[in-house]
Structures are given as structure tokens and as C-alpha cells.
């Protein structure tokens, strides 16, 4: 095909991009993407994680850390689950935290009567509404559910504390049944209604549709709870906010039944992209790493290697073409700024995919002086060795230094890369905890 | 509020639910949710993972495992990345796998000339189209991009192999520029155009809109590549298929630059819910665990505790109310069936959140005979100890056995739970690898 057949591409002359192209979609006039609240359920849903056994002291330590981070609510295991659960609930209510304390109970007066005596700021009531749960869990019909919901709700309200009514397994419940019960409890004045994807089956556009529909039926706030069995818990939460939900249930590292729910850190990664000012002003993002380490230690798991934000490689750039652009402008390959989370970015230059720009920045870090042509030549030597075995920083540095000696360029102080203070070099041979140490 | 004010809730009398309520949305007339293909990029994107150094032997082992699993394409690192990369590419092409072999190159004739000599079935060409990449990476304008794209595409086509043209950082590129270049390359007959969320900034509804729009401009297939920086890579892939994309880039465990891309296993968890017949007939799901272990070992990481499907707790049920329902019908709290992946489900009964139904099933497993009332009584004893310290199976078993001795019920063979063959009991005290062993 010859040139003239090619349709000329004209540079778009649109003015400066809007401040945040990843912000809320203007079409979502009910969006709460920039006005959401967090209900942390590490001490309720998280206690249902296979490895979780929290002592009273550990629960208090976690509750204080979450409060310091800035979560709006902290949800605790039902006081009827066990005697210790009840005592722990009372102990945490006495801490006088900024975050409101909630407990999570079945839709029974027996549970409600115990819950309201613990000192909580609110009660989260849940009952299964799907045919599965109605048949195999509590075995009650929708009329029974509505009647008991009304009794429990009016009782809790009479105590002057917040009340949320949530269905369980909402996405496998009959839509008419759901809207009917939500409309009923909204009328009698619940603070929130909850949608729960108890089995993790929902996908984002389903979530958006259900939230938008529910929003047209109730006047109270909508809270959403998403399990992560099919890997959609973060985006389902985001899409729910786009549709008008106001509150999202999270837990540290997402721990909960099975593979858990929307993780606190992962949701922060998603939300800071959409609403940087709101998120940075409201939550202490640099505390995420400490909170995750605290909970990971308590439940005896490791931080996943690919965990959002805190995964060891979340801010590591390896391919030569990536490293080049990152050195010129980090935004080229980063939508998240590690500084927002008290973290650093890494350029991984000690590997066979490295490029001469990454090596040049290393040359600068070593305060050596090589021309671009020389940097390219030494890069070729490094890539050759990288083909033979994994490289570490020492390998690369000695190749660079030997080469520098050969060419014996007069030693001049070079202009160092504008991003030096952001950068750490890492090698491939050791765990990253060590890598950071061996860097300079 | 008195009864008559309560709006009567009538049971919905809808007939039997449609076979799969989680299937493709009928409104998505272009949906490929039941007709998608996988391009595994573990040996390209995955090689850009910080810890990745694959020897030739390991690359071949991984390629064979992916081919056996059933991926449609295997994408390899550019042959110009290093001499060894080129040789490995040729070696894998010679294996005669069912999967088509692709290599991934910059939009340069220099790269294309090397690529077409390696024996690959197709070439994936990529070039940055966002203002960021055009400014800080290759520094070319859209006209240059279009011209070089046409030259490379026509050259590769002349060799009779597949060609894909992808923009890079598509979601930060100018829409008019994008559609213009895609329309141009579609006209000259590329096999696929690619959309890449290179920085992981996209959200599902954005993805749906872009794919739907692109679908109206090109006649070729659409491939999508999603990074996972904000935790949306799985749902973005799903939503892209709903919008009409046909191919999804994945890697084993999602390894790649930074936190990587859509994980193979995670996407399978999402897709089996939507298209069970298609997914089960096309891919060997029971191989996922082995492939993940193979790659995890090669790059020296652990399988994340909460990994989709293969995370140690993915099929573990803990809370009493969950255990009760799971024992009655696993679908109550499971959207995924562990058997589809060659895995088992666990009821975690040795903890203070346990319920008497879980304990009753344990009593049955022990072939003891207790009445429901007696099971409830012994459950109370177990929960009391669970408040004091973490429990293991031996703790629970001895409490049950002591209690059984006390009440000295005549030993009769009890009817065992219908799910016994599905169930394994686990305790909280040990790593799960051991748990399975200690189970019975």
C-alpha cells in the first residue's frame, strides 16, 4: 500500500488534558467516587479468615491502627458468637476511637438485645434472601424476613444507635423480593441498606445496575460488601460507588471467609487514581504498610508478592524501554506515586532486558562519566552476561568500572538524573528486603 | 410501626431460574464471554517481572505446560532483547506445540526483520500512543507512528504470518488518534488490534466503552492487555469480553512489570462462572495448580495466601452459619466448585466461630453417635476453649470423645454427611499443607 492511500492522522489539538482524566465519570450523576466511606471489617469478616485468631490485645491494637489510618467505621464480630467476642466488643467500644464501632448480627431479637448493650455506635443486621440461603441456611420466607427485620430495626432505633439492614447473597436473590424488603426497611428509617456479594459471583456492570436500581427505591445510604472469589472485589466496589453506593466494606489484606473481600490497600490504590485529593486528605496512606504487616503477622500469612501498593515489585521497573521513560518522567509508567504511600520506586537495571538509559543512570549514581555511546557499549557487555546468568548490582558495577577504567575518561562530576532521590537500584539475586539494603 | 403498615412481600413465583444467572448479559450482543481466546505472556510480560530469569530449559518447560493447559497463544520476549532471547524463541517455535507462538516487538523494521526469521506464527507489534510515551519514550508523532506501523505490518504480512498492532497506554491516548490509527491498520489487514492499559489506570466501565467504540471502527479481532496496579485487571478483562474483545493477555500468577497483568488462574475463576461449558471444554483447569507452582518456583515467589482458586483458603469455610449451609448444599456459599480444579473443600470447625452443624459433621466423621442436643452441648464446650486459645483438630476430637464417653451413647454407625467425600477437616494451628495430611 502506497503512502497516499494512508489516511492522514492529524494531531489532536485538544487543549490541556483535564486535571484528572481518571476521575469520576460525569455521566454518573449519583457517583460517590469522591465522597465514599470505609467500613473496615478486619475484626468481623477478617475473623472468619481460616488463619485468624485475634486475642483481645491484638484486636485492640488493630482497631487503634485502623482508627489512626482514618476508616469511618470498624465492624466487630457478633457478641453472641462467643463470650469473649462480647467482652472484646465492649472493650473496643470503651477505647473512645474516632471511628464508629459497629457489630454484625443475625436478624434475630436475641442477637439484637445483646448487641445494643455492648456500647456500639451501630448494629449491622444481615439475613440471607437468596433461595439458596432461605432453603439451606435459615429456611424462612420473605414475609418472615420482613417481619423480623422490622422488629429488630425498630428495637435498635429505639436505643438511639445506627442500624443497617443488609441482604445476604444479594446477587442471587430475586430482584423484586430485594427491592421490596429494602423499600420496607427504608420507610421505617434504617441508616443504611446493604448489598452483599456473599459468594463473589457479581461482575462490575451487574453491580452498577443493581446499585442504580436500588438508589431509585431507597433514600438511605447504600453499603456494599464484595467477596473476591472471582477477583472482582476491588472493581465491584469502585463500580458500586460510581452507581451511587456510599460505603464499602473492606478488610486489611482482604482477609475473610474463603478468599475474603475487598482489600483496604487495594481499594486505596483504585480510589487514589480517581479521587486523589479526597483520598489523601482523609486517609493516612503511608500507614497502609504498617497495618498490613500488623495483620499479616497476626494471621500468620505473608504479604502477597503482587499485593497492591505494598507488593515488593509494585513500583519496580525492569524492561529497558520502561526504565528509560521512568527516568524521564515517572508518570509515563506509573499511575500511582510511591511517595503517596511512603514508599520508593526501583529501577531494576541488573538484568538482560536492561537498556542503556537505565545503565546511564547507574553510571551517574556511581559518579562516573561516560558518553552515551560508551554507555551503550557497556550495556551490550552487561546484557551478554545477563544472558548467561542472573545479575546482581556488583556484577553490573564491576563491568561498568572496568569499562570506565579501560576508556579512562577524565573523571568529571556528571549531572545526575533528576529522579535520583526517587530511585533505588535492585538486583535479581536476593529477596527484595535485602535488595533495598544492597542498593545505593 | 404496626403490621398493617408493612407492605406485604409476596414470594416471587418465577419459574425455575435460568440455567446460569451469571452468564453473558443478553444486552451485550457483541459479547465474547463464551467465545474468548487466551494469549499467555508469562514468557514475555512475565519475563519483565522483577524476579524473573528463565533459562532456556525453564522456558520450554513452561511453554509445554501452557500448551497442555490449552492456551491459544504463547507470547515470547522480543528476539532483539538479547541473543539468548532470540535463540530461545527459535527453540520454542521448533517444539511443534498446538498453541500458536508469538513474539512481541517494537514498531521498527529492525525488530520485525529479526522476528519473522525466528519461526513464530505471529508478531505482536506495539507502540506508545499516549502523549506521555510519545514525549518520554520514543518521541514520535502519530503520523510517524502510522507510517512505521504500515511498513512493519505489510512486511510481516508478506511473510504469511499473523500480525497484531497494539497501542501502548491506550487509556491515556487521545481517542481520535487511537481510532484513526486502528482504522488505518485494520484497513491494511492486521489480524488483531490491541488495547493496552499499560499503567493499570482503567476501570471496567471505561474499558467497556472503549472496546464497544473500537468494535464499531474495526472489523478485525480486538485483544486486551490489562495491568493490575489498581486491582482491576481481572474485571477489566471480563468487561472487555462483554464489550466484544476476543482475546485476553494473561500470565501465570499475573507476573509482569510492577504488579503484573491479568492472572491466568484468576481469569479462569471469573470465566468459569460466566461460561462453565466453554471454559471446562477448552482448558485443563485441574492443571492450574501445577502450572502456578512451576512458575512460582522459577521466579522464587510463594503462591499468595489469597490467590484465586489455589490460595490455601479459597475453599475453606469457617463461620458456623456458613458451615451449616455448605454441609446442606455447597452452592449456598460457593460459586466455584473445587472439583473443577482438582481441589477439595474444607470445613474449618476447630475455632470459636464454629457451629453445631459443623461439629455434628465431625462427630459423624469420627463415626460416633450423638443426638443434635448432645452435639449442641459439646459445641458449647468447644467454643469455650476456642475463646481461650487457637484450637486444632486434636483438641476438638478429644473434647468430642470425652463427651461421648460421658454420655456413653450406645455406639451405632451413624449416617454420614452427604458431602463427606468432598470434605476435609482442618485446624488452625498448622500450615495448610500439613492440615490436609492431618485430616481424615
Automatic annotation (TrEMBL), chains A, B:
The transmembrane segments are none
Compositional bias of kind Polar residues:
1-13
Which parts form a coiled-coil structure per UniProt?
A: none
Gene Ontology molecular-function annotations = homocitrate synthase activity; metal ion binding
- According to the entry, every stretch annotated as the Pyruvate carboxyltransferase domain falls at 36-289
The reaction(s) annotated as catalysed by this protein in its Swiss-Prot or TrEMBL entry are: acetyl-CoA + 2-oxoglutarate + H2O = (2R)-homocitrate + CoA + H(+)
Q: Annotated pathway, please? A: Amino-acid biosynthesis; L-lysine biosynthesis via AAA pathway; L-alpha-aminoadipate from 2-oxoglutarate: step 1/5
Q: What class of enzyme is it?
A: transferase
Record GO cellular component, one term: mitochondrion
Enzyme Commission no = 2.3.3.14
Give one GO biological process term. Answer: lysine biosynthetic process via aminoadipic acid
Cofactor(s) needed by this chain? Mn(2+); Mg(2+)
Could you list this entry's UniProt keywords, alphabetically sorted: Amino-acid biosynthesis, Lysine biosynthesis, Magnesium, Manganese, Metal-binding, Transferase
| Region feature (Disordered) | 1-26, 411-440
UniProt xrefs under PANTHER family: HOMOCITRATE SYNTHASE, CYTOSOLIC ISOZYME-RELATED (PTHR10277:SF48), HOMOCITRATE SYNTHASE-RELATED (PTHR10277)
Outline what the protein does.
Catalyzes the aldol-type condensation of 2-oxoglutarate with acetyl-CoA to yield homocitrate. Carries out the first step of the alpha-aminoadipate (AAA) lysine biosynthesis pathway.
Q: Which family does it belong to?
A: Belongs to the alpha-IPM synthase/homocitrate synthase family. Homocitrate synthase LYS20/LYS21 subfamily.
The protein's matches in NCBIfam families, at most eight in alphabetical order, are given as:
LysS_fung_arch (TIGR02146)
Protein's name according to its UniProt entry: homocitrate synthase
Amino acid at each position: 500500500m502506497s503512502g497516499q492511500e494512508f489516511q492522514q492522522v492529524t494531531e489532536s489539538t485538544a487543549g490541556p488534558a483535564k486535571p484528572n482524566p481518571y476521575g469520576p465519570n460525569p455521566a454518573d450523576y449519583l457517583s460517590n467516587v469522591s465522597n465514599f466511606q470505609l467500613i473496615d471489617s478486619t475484626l468481623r469478616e477478617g475473623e472468619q479468615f481460616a488463619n485468624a485468631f485475634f486475642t483481645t490485645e491484638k484486636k485492640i491494637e488493630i482497631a487503634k491502627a485502623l482508627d489512626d489510618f482514618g476508616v469511618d467505621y470498624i465492624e466487630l464480630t457478633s457478641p453472641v458468637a462467643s463470650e469473649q467476642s462480647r467482652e472484646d466488643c465492649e472493650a473496643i467500644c470503651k477505647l473512645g476511637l474516632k471511628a464508629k464501632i459497629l457489630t454484625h448480627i443475625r436478624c434475630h431479637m436475641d442477637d439484637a438485645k445483646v448487641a445494643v448493650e455492648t456500647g456500639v455506635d451501630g448494629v449491622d443486621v444481615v439475613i440471607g434472601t437468596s433461595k439458596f440461603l432461605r432453603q439451606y441456611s435459615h429456611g424462612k420466607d420473605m414475609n418472615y424476613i420482613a417481619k423480623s427485620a422490622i422488629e429488630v430495626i425498630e428495637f435498635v432505633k429505639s436505643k438511639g444507635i445506627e442500624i443497617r439492614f443488609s441482604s445476604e447473597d444479594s446477587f442471587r436473590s430475586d430482584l423484586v423480593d430485594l427491592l421490596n424488603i429494602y423499600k420496607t426497611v427504608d420507610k421505617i428509617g434504617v441508616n443504611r441498606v446493604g448489598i452483599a456479594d456473599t459468594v463473589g459471583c457479581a461482575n462490575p456492570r451487574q453491580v452498577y445496575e443493581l446499585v442504580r436500581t436500588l438508589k431509585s427505591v431507597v433514600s438511605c445510604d447504600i453499603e456494599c460488601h464484595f467477596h473476591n472469589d472471582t477477583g472482582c472485589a476491588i472493581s465491584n466496589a469502585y463500580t458500586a460507588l460510581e452507581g451511587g453506593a456510599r460505603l464499602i466494606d473492606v478488610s486489611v489484606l482482604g482477609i475473610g471467609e474463603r478468599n475474603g473481600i475487598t482489600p483496604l490497600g487495594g481499594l486505596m490504590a483504585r480510589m487514589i487514581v480517581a479521587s486523589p485529593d479526597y483520598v489523601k486528605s482523609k486517609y493516612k496512606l503511608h500507614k497502609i504498610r504498617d497495618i498490613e504487616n500488623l495483620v499479616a503477622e497476626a494471621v500468620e500469612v505473608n504479604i502477597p508478592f503482587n499485593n497492591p501498593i505494598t507488593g515488593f515489585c509494585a513500583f519496580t521497573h525492569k524492561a529497558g524501554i520502561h526504565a528509560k521513560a521512568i527516568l524521564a518522567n515517572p508518570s509515563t509508567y506509573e499511575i500511582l506515586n510511591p511517595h503517596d504511600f511512603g514508599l520508593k520506586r526501583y529501577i531494576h537495571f541488573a538484568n538482560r532486558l536492561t537498556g542503556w538509559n537505565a545503565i546511564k543512570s547507574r553510571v551517574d549514581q556511581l559518579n562516573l562519566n561516560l558518553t552515551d555511546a560508551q554507555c551503550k557499549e557497556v550495556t551490550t557487555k552487561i546484557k551478554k552476561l545477563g544472558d548467561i546468568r542472573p545479575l546482581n548490582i556488583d556484577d553490573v558495577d564491576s563491568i561498568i568500572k572496568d569499562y570506565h577504567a579501560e576508556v579512562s575518561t577524565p573523571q568529571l562530576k556528571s549531572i545526575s538524573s533528576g529522579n535520583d532521590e526517587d530511585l533505588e537500584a535492585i538486583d535479581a539475586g536476593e529477596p527484595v528486603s535485602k535488595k533495598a539494603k544492597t542498593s545505593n
